[in-house]
Amino acid sequence: MGTARNTHFNGIAVAVLTVLCSCAGVARGGELSIDQKLALLVASYPETIAGIEDGRLIFRDGGAPLLIDDGRVKDHFAKLGAGDVEDSLSQDYPVGACETKPSVNFDPGRIRSDPLMMRLYGASAREVERSLVNVDWFGTVVRMTRRQGADIALGQVRDALKSIPGVEKYVSPSAGTFNWRKVAKAPNMSVHSFGAAIDLNTKYADYWVWSGGKPGHVPAYSNRFPMAIVETFERFGFIWGGRWYHYDTMHFEYRPELVAIAKAAGVSACP
Predict the structure, then answer these.
(1) What three-state secondary structure class fits 122?
(2) Do residues 112 and 253 make contact, with C-beta atoms less than 8 angstroms apart?
(3) Is residue 85 within 8 Å of 69, Cβ to Cβ?
(4) pLDDT for 149-196, tens place per residue?
């Protein structure tokens, strides 16, 4: 990677740290205000988001501002299908090296604003593909977007994972990264569509759809991925599908704003 990109993404860390410091008065495990969460969102994507004005996200490319809250009251599945920016921050993702047993429909990160994701990564398969780069993944090559530093973050995850004994059988072969498609049994776009997600070895995976689950009612399962892998991904801004009620344990997606919110509010997966 070039020096310019190193400098740029070191700047992201500084920006997020600055916002974290502004939240210092929040009790550990306390809820952040929506304004604090939005500040962390802006700080997490400085490549694209310039700031907030009149209830809208402002973008560096000069394009149309994006409304943060559409004012509609939605249940969980309406948020999944057509979430706005505020909806995407409505559930706090927990971080740490411990497993969690999420309550029904607790899916932090599954609720997303498709319009925001398209502004961050591209509004079509062709546009996203223009930003894909090759990342070495345990002797194979996967394609990840270079936008928002997702490729850099995945490389950092890879390097850190190599220190975990016996890790390779869990993380390789990858079951895929870029794939322009909707989420299974849902109308919204998968983060794989934007080249900002990776699936690990399906041999150790549990997935609510494969298990015969229905939306709002899924079978129990026993996680087979070491939590050291999860903690490593989270350290570099990825969230894990194993923390969702509608679980997908092989799945990790780059959502640095949710990890930053968890750290600022002290939302831990560990008791």
Answers:
(1) coil
(2) no
(3) yes
(4) 999 999 999 999 999 999 999 999 999 999 999 887 778 899 999 999
> Would you give the DSSP letter of residue 193?
G
The answer to whether residues 238 and 94 touch, using CB atoms and an 8 Å cutoff, is no
Query: How large is the average pLDDT for residues 27-53?
Result: 91
The predicted model scores a pTM of 0.91
How far is Cα 236 from Cα 98, in angstroms, rounded to an integer? 17
Q: In what order do the strands lie in the sheet with 66-67?
A: 49-53, 56-59, 66-67
Ordered DSSP codes for 70-105: ------HHHHHHH--HHHHTSSPPPBSSS---PPTT
The angle formed by the CA atoms of residues 73, 197 and 265, to the nearest 5 degrees, is 55
pLDDT higher than threshold 70 for residue 23: no
Neighbours of 60 (CB within 10 A): 12
Token pair for 155: 């490389």
Q: 166 by DSSP, 3-state: which?
A: coil
Asked if omega into 165 is within 30° of 0 (cis), the reply is no
- Cα distance between residue 21 and residue 141, in whole Å: 38
Q: Please give the single-letter amino acid code of residue 156.
A: Q
pLDDT tens for residues 210-233? 999 999 999 999 999 999 999 999
Q: Which amino acid is at 4?
A: A
User: What are 207's strand-pairing partners?
Assistant: 248
Domains of the chain: 75-265 (3.30.1380)
Among 157, 128, 156, 122, CA closest to 143: 128
